[in-house]
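pinging the channel bc i need a second pair of eyes. not urgent but kinda urgent?? the chain im working w is below, pasted from the shared doc
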Amino acid sequence: MNQLLPLAPASGLFSPVRLGPYLLTNRVVMGPMTRRRAGPDGVPHALHAEYYSQRAAAGLLVTEGAQVSPQGKGYPGTPGIHTAAQVEGWRLTTEAVHLRGARIFLQLWHVGRGSHPLLQPDGALPVAPSPLAAPGLAETPQGERPFPVPRELGIADIREVIGQFVHAAECAKAAGFDGVELHGGNGFLIDQFLRESSNRRNDRYGGTPANRIRFLLELTDAVAAVWGPERVGVRISPINPWGGMHDSDPAGLFGQVAEALSARDIAYLHVAETRTRRPMFNWARLRRRFRGTYIANGGFDRYRAQVALSRGRADLISFGRAFIANPDLVQRLRLGAPLRSADPAIYYGGDAGGYTDYGPLSATERTGLPHFDWRSAAMARLRWW
């Protein structure tokens, strides 16, 4: 039976914590969110710097995914991290965030089959572990198009993709980031290697879970050779079905992932704890199989974050959409202030509207903040656990 924790303010969420070589000011993480404000050449600009610096009260910020090569691109307007111009563009962001005293990791991204020839160099087919098309439609400069059957990566191609990640990791270091996160979730290339629905290979990168996790582990080792493992994080989404992803034994598969990454002493494991009634997934058990820093993500509010930290279920808590309309989210969490809602119609693309024009907590919002009733909140949320 669930038991109530001692009722107290959420001080743990705002306590310092060590992450590799860094001492973070609090345990709030701004999670990666695609916003698609870069130009056609994938170069981030001053608007990105403003956006991230506005949210730099978080102890750690993780950027939106940056494609590691032109081949890795899957959407119009996403930034890259493989050219000199992109490095200079990102440097505006790292400098702005560091002036605010925060740490920022760049998420390294390759979408694999989640692309289209209209987004690929010379109209080439996107690549994947197996020649299986993703369900749904790709967003291209010419509108929505069905995803094509991708080209299967050969062994030499896999070496080339790992080289793309290494080059991107070197570019991220040149841009002044504090570390990098490998995007291993959401149905993109790493996830496509991990799960049965998209990986039908019969070589050493397919078949058994030990083979299917090989690509992720080789990538991790290669990027760690650039940064050191203590500055490399990995994000996974074990039961996120986006992009047609599923696996017959997600607990067994991702348990092996957690243990293998734990043995490498990476900076953290960042887990999208998707909440669905089926399939059920024991997130606490996954956390126990990773001995390092565990970042939990997935619809957390102030109270749930405190409970997770108090129970040792996580070391840091990642917030995503809540940061869009609340650049001062950390302050709002401290005060128990209400959160503003963002407009989904302007999540992606565009200009400053819906991106950097959300203001801080107003005097009116501050006035009359109710006393937070921890016991009532606890009772109301017991079913979540």
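so The chain has one domain: 11-384. and Residues 11-384 form a domain with the TIM Barrel fold (CATH 3.20.20.70). — does that match what u expected or am i reading it wrong
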